[in-house]
Amino acid sequence: MKPVIIKRRKKHEAEQAIRDLEARGYEIEFPLTEFSSDGKLFDRDSYNRRIFVENVLSTCWIAKLRKVE
To answer: In terms of domain of life, where is this protein from (predicted)?
Structure first.
């Protein structure tokens, strides 16, 4: 059976999803881990050229569970 991958932006939402799946007979294969990535935000000026505005940081919480048989 394929594993279930939980991806959430907030930690408490990911923990709740894991608890719900564990109650239905799943077990954790890969623990809850925070992944972060950074990027850049651009805008357009009056000549339609791209100009840098700011750096953007985004985080995501990921865990992998599988069904116990």
So the answer is: Bacteria
Q: What is the DSSP letter of 2?
A: P
Chain centroid to CA 59: 6
In this structure, what token pair is assigned to residue 22? 């564990």
CB-count exposure of residue 14 (10 Å: 0-12, 13-18, 19+): buried
CA-to-CA separations, 1 to 27, 40, 42, in angstroms, rounded: 13, 39, 43
Tens of pLDDT, residue by residue, the chain (69 residues): 799 999 999 999 999 999 999 999 999 999 999 999 999 999 999 999 999 999 999 999 999 999 998
